[in-house]
Amino acid sequence: MRLEIPEIETSAQLTSQEYVYARLRNAIMVGAIPTGTSLTMRGVAEQLGLSPTPIREALRRLSSEQAITPQDNRRMLVPEMTAGRFEDLVATRTVLERHAAERALPYVSGVRVQDLRAIDDKMDEAIAAQDYDRLTRLNQDFHRKLYQANPDLVAMPLIESIWLQLGPFHRELIKNVSDFYVVDHHKAILNALDERNAEALVTAIEGDIQDGVVAAGRVKIAAGV
Prior knowledge:
This protein starts with 15 loop residues before the first helix and ends with a helix. The protein has 2 domains: 16-77, Winged helix-like DNA-binding domain superfamily/Winged helix DNA-binding domain (Arc Repressor Mutant, subunit A, Orthogonal Bundle), CATH 1.10.10.10; 83-223, Four Helix Bundle (Hemerythrin (Met), subunit A). Helices cover 64% and strands 3% of the residues. The protein contains 10 helices and 3 strands. This is HTH-type transcriptional regulator McbR. Residues 14-81 form the HTH gntR-type domain. One of its GO terms (molecular function) is DNA-binding transcription factor activity. It holds the Pfam family FCD.
């Protein structure tokens, strides 16, 4: 099976190992590579037109981040989601992102709120166009933009690790998220930022995580489909 590995922005400073790692990591994080997908060094190398050496290092790093798991046949697997793992990832994400949002609030400027509102508008357009890949990227951009207002932020790699592990499963759910996502929590986040209301902000962040995809994920896991 040919993999869907989206292109990413690159630079001359990136080594081939760094480029492969960044590209595969992005593909998994946005859910372009589905759960249950088997990866081989040779297959990925042939698709990217590279030697197996940088592929081997990229897969090793992704394995250490629990984005993929090694198999007995020397393949790597994008793991299926289980109920226990899902609940633990969601709980960890909630704690980390509530913390990151609250710590960012004192540094959020009016200009940053405008930028966040522009991202949210693009998300609305992506929903209307049913462009779910773009929607996933924009959602991550929205949260990253908010948290990175804090110049002393240290939690972003941890948060992105959770996104990485949730990405493929999240992508399976997003088409049906409107069945569960009744409140637009991004609008609530923006209102809380306008009002400088920390309590409302962390409540909106938790609602954004817990509603929608999480509700849909629990239904999917319970149904075993």
